[in-house]
Design brief:
This protein is an alpha+beta fold and 139 residues long. The protein has a single domain (6-119), classed as Gcn5-related N-acetyltransferase (GNAT) (Aminopeptidase). It contains four helices and five strands. Strand 4, helix 3 (84-99) and strand 5 form a beta-alpha-beta unit.
Length: 139
């Protein structure tokens, strides 16, 4: 990475970092209990720190063989626009190329305009053949 004050580390965010970064980046909220369970199922994760504080993250989740999903790409708003999202994706894509079976299916749900970033890494829209769909449990 070009900025020496940023450090990219292959590790899980802590529950606190995860909840905080999702909120700061405007992503949907999860409880700490849900985050703890979800983080335990991570296949690969990367965190970017600045002055020892997590300011960016991304994860790869999946079944370990066939299906994988890139999730939680989040960068603190004060640090956006300097290539940190790209650095997170580069780390995830290196892991994918190195560790996943060649037949693996890797997907993601892209918020606009972040879809332009993902296109740079070879992700393409699946419509009209298939559409992303979601179901959210609400209590």
């Amino acid at each position: 990475m070009k900025h020496p004050e940023y450090c990219t580390v292959s590790r899980l965010p802590t529950v606190e970092e995860y909840v905080r970064l999702r909120a700061l980046a405007g992503l949907s909220a999860f409880s700490e209990d849900a985050a703890r369970i979800g983080l335990a199922g991570t296949i690969y994760a990367v965190v970017i720190t600045y002055e020892d504080m997590a300011i960016g993250m991304g994860r790869l989740i999946g079944d370990g063989g066939c299906f994988f999903q890139v999730v939680d790409i989040a960068v603190h708003p004060e640090h956006q626009g300097v290539g940190l999202g790209k650095a997170i994706m580069e780390a995830i894509m290196k892991y994918i190329a190195r560790e996943l079976p060649t037949s693996a299916y890797v997907s993601l749900i892209a918020d606009v305009p972040a879809n332009k970033l993902y296109e740079k890494f070879g992700f393409v829209e699946t419509a009209p053949r298939s559409l992303g769909m979601a179901y959210r449990v609400r209590r």
